[in-house]
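pasting for ref. prot 1 ->
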Amino acid sequence: MDSDEMLPRLSGIILEEQTELTLADVCRACAVHAEYIIELVEEGVLVPVGREPVSWRFTGVHMHRATVSLRLQRDLGINLAGVALVLQLLDEVEALRARINALEAE
């Protein structure tokens, strides 16, 4: 038996920042109820385009943040306020790394 045959097959969707997803799309992809995504929006973790849930549009970046939020809650037991703080700190770390890389490139 070939070693490649023993590996599990994975499938996925490549999402770009310009991809527009509905609330239902994000819920399906994250395997969560709409209430969870609505709570993320209310907490400021996700900021979709649109005024009401039926008109909200999300990007691939939102999808990534939603999945990270879900893992933080499920794996570490962090509440939504904590998730928002963790994501804010991760954003700041990423921005600082980008600044360091830019300075090193000079």
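and prot 2 ->
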Amino acid sequence: MLQTPPAPSELLAQLVAYDTTSAKSNLPLIGFVREYLEAHGVRSHLIPSEDGHKASLFATIGPEGVGGIGLSAHSDCVPVEGQTWTSDPFTLTLRDGKLYGRGACDMKGFLACVLASVPSFQSADLKEPIHILLSYDEEVGCVGVRPMIAKLGDTLPKPRAVIVGEPTSMQVIEAQKRIDLYRTVVTGLEGHSSAPDKGVNAIAYAAELVLELQRIAAEEAKVTHDDRFEPPYSTVGIGVIEGGTASNIIAKTCAVDWEVRSLPTADPNAIPSKLMAYAEERLLPRMRAVSEQCSIATEHDHAVIGFLAAADSDAVSLGLKLTGHNKPGTVAYATEAGLFEAAGCPTVVCGPGDIAQAHAADEFIAVSQLEGCMALLDRLKTTLSA
């Protein structure tokens, strides 16, 4: 006979102990989850990455052949390098009702609650199944969930609704912004800094591009507006600038990494198109007057598509029913929700923890948030057993 299942905090301690920074393998954590599920009579399927160093996991509890509800989490977390922690980030530490550890909030707390609920799910007379979907590499562009989503409705059951348990303080979220990452590389003409007129300083022109991006962003804020979001418009962020070799050398190259977080209804190509038009009309003619070899090129690194639930979304209705809230909200950060929605799985985002704690030093999740999530999962069990 199985022992009393561990509390969410006990499971969270074990999950946090696995360093699943996106640059590392998640297989040890996946192995732990799989063994835990098997101990409770739940079989799971693995969807390995192409190189075999990582895997997603899909498991079903309850009857087969009907849609059911998917509970989605990602296994990876962001690095701790360069951060100052007051305790070991991979040892869960309780202080003043808060559980500290990397990934405790984003989003192993939700996974711990799901695992802690497995025995209760198993003992219930579910009329619809509960699916557990655990992915990898969400933090680097929602990479790992895509092969799993591609199998839904084919070799894996397709949930009729999905709850993505990202930290929302247990609020129901029906929409998120789209994120596009870009790298713009300016190539100038190097030379001695004593003769700046003989060269083309890539850093100087990159600075003009950055200023133009800020101007475009301010312009977009006036024409793209949705009060459901905070801030209520599409935004531009400058992340990294790299260029030059020495102070007495005219910089030949400069690269700028930047992002656009656009409203889900906005044209994602609007801002990069305006930037390149500015580069071609205002900057390149001046640069090529000195050297025809000069260039400005922008590459689209990757995108996380926006999420906008349908007005009559079953997932949003379910989320409101389970939480008791009256209306859903929105977020500006990225989740896997848009990918599920695009694949025909109505989706809602709702999970324990405050996004303000995610990715930060001394990341934590309040014990009360875990309790709230456990209550929601218990109500889900009751709903699917009726």
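The first helix runs from residue 8 to 16.
The mean pLDDT is 96.
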